[in-house]
Amino acid sequence: MSAIDAVVFDVGRVLVQWDMRLLFAKLIGDPERLDWFCSTVVTEEWHFQHDAGRDLAEMVAERKAEFPGHDDLIDAYATRFLETIPGNVPGSHEIVRELAGRQVPLFAITNFATPFWREYRATEPLFDLFGDIVVSGDEKLAKPDPKIFELAAGRFGHEPGAMLFIDDNPANVASAQALGWQVHHFHDAQTLRADLASRQLLG
Question: Which chain regions cross the lipid bilayer (predicted)?
Answer without folding.
Answer: none
